[in-house]
Amino acid sequence: MKPINVGLLGIGTVGGGTFTVLKRNAEEISRRAGRPITITAVADKNLALAREVTGGGVRLTDDAFSVVADPEIDIVVELIGGYGVAKELVLKAIENGKHIVTANKALLAVHGNEIFAAAQKKGVMVAFEAAVAGGIPIIKALREGLSANRIDWIAGIINGTTNFILSEMRDKGLSFAEVLKEAQALGYAEADPTFDIEGVDAAHKATIMSAIAFGIPMQFDKAYIEGITKLDATDIVYAEQLGYRIKLLGIARRREQGVELRVHPTLIPEKRLIANVEGAMNAVLVQGDAVGATLYYGKGAGAEPTASAVIADLVDVTRLHTSDPEHRVPHLAFQPDQVRDVPVLPIEDVVTSYYLRMRVDDKPGVLADITRILADSSISIEAMLQKEAVEGESQTDIIMLTHQTVERNANAAIAKIEALTVVSGKVTKLRMESL
Question: Is the whole-model pTM more than 0.70?
Fold first, then answer.
């Protein structure tokens, strides 16, 4: 049978992995897809690298637009990244009737609604398994495997860089700055790690998962995003003493009033499987009403793990290449006319539990003042840790874990606690999830 011709845009880490795995496992992949899948054109600004990776057996160009315009190309694989030229290329390829496979979570989280609408109109597919959690097939699970379920919530460790940093801070007792340098030296963190450590990368992925889980449009601009840069190693130690681990979680939760969409450092009970995901690994926990909790674990980045997801999409698109567009799996799991514009709740309306750490004068009556303020805000305490003052010091730390409350109430109570003369500086507040 005639091969499916693929145009590859970008032959960096993932592009190189995709070319290598597709060539190595060509026979197996062809048996699954029903016909050969062949990369016939590669576009990259670095032609020397492209020649080195491909061996020169395909058409090489530094003009990506010539690939998306090529009438012989059936599927365009976009691995350039970013919002700029990648968006132009994807939309032009769709206009030219090409199917799209992409690993570009930023592009989809920000411009996905426009891209899916264009693809729907043109009758082509946009596949993006590699955009979330690398080699873990979480998109397939949410979109197809769990389609009988009403998804209640998703919580994911979906950024390997931050998980590596938090694991090292816990294991070695080092500061954030020290571990970041180590992560950069080992290649886990970029020279400019902002998107990772500030939670933006995780928020892109959480946005995509929320859209598929709840049948809502991409709403990245409504996500609450808080990274790990201000996390103190002291809190990792205290959390451990209380039976918790701190992870950067991407959370999407269905509520009556709307959807919670948030990324932030989170305390998780250490007995949960997801709390024990260490190093640069990823894991996503999905709660469905019929199936209960399901956990997906694996490598969230890297050349071949991500290539695994890219090629799985190529196989899917190849199988459905000639099918009626009306009978394909919808991009966001729900039929396009059934996608609902449900509001994303502001962080002040989120309901969760809290870890509070405060530096206080070591004298009688302090604890009573603090607990009174919490009680007045209808916040009850689940657990508490009061450290003994170091000899010669007049202050100590109090750590409290609260039961669930609305964030707005927690913030109001914290403001009153910070106003007490016996409390020094700011109260450290971290959110907790029992999962």
Answer: yes
- Total domain count, the chain: 3
Which pLDDT score, from 0 to 100, does residue 324 have?
Answer: 84
**Rounded to whole angstroms, how far apart are CA atoms 177 and 182?**
9
- 343 occurs within a structural domain: no
Task: Provide the domain limits for residue 366.
Answer: 351-432
Query: Any residues with CB less than 8 A from the CB of 120 and at least 6 apart, and which?
Result: 325, 331, 336
**Furthest C-alpha separation in the chain:** 83
Residue 316 covered by a domain = yes
153 and 203 part of one domain: yes
Q: Token pair 């049948």 is at which residue?
A: 215
Token pair recorded at residue 185: 């030296």
Looking at the annotation, which residues are catalytic? 205
Distance, in Å, from the CA atom of 330 to the CA atom of 335, rounded to the nearest integer, reads 6
Q: Give the model's confidence band at 20: pLDDT under 50 very low, under 70 low, under 90 confident, else very high.
A: very high
| DSSP state for residue 144 in the 8-state scheme | I
The answer to whether residue 344 sits within a structural domain is no
Please check whether residues 326 and 400 belong to one and the same domain: no
Do 155 and 268 lie in a common domain?
A: yes
- CATH number of domain containing 34: 3.40.50.720
Q: Which helix (H) or strand (E) holds 50?
A: helix 47-54
Structural domain includes residue 346? no
The domain that contains 383 carries what CATH number? 3.30.70.260
pLDDT in tens, 155-213: 999 999 999 999 999 999 999 999 999 999 988 888 899 999 999 999 999 999 999 99
Structure tokens at 226: 């808080």
Q: How far apart are the C-alpha atoms of 138 and 142, rounded to whole Å?
A: 6
Query: Are 147 and 197 a contacting pair, CB within 8 Å?
Result: no
List, as one string, the DSSP characters of 344-393: BPPGGG-EEEEEEEEEEESSTTHHHHHHHHHHHTT--EEEEEEPPPPTT-
Residue 32: C-alpha distances to residues 43, 188, 192, 300 (Å): 27, 33, 40, 24
Measured distance CA(22)–CA(298) in Å, rounded: 20
Question: What is the percent of the chain with per-residue pLDDT over 90, rounded to a whole number?
Answer: 91
C-alpha distance from residue 288 to each of 82, 151, 268 (Å): 32, 4, 19
Q: How far apart are CA 138 and CA 209, in angstroms?
A: 8
- Specify the DSSP class assigned to residue 192: S
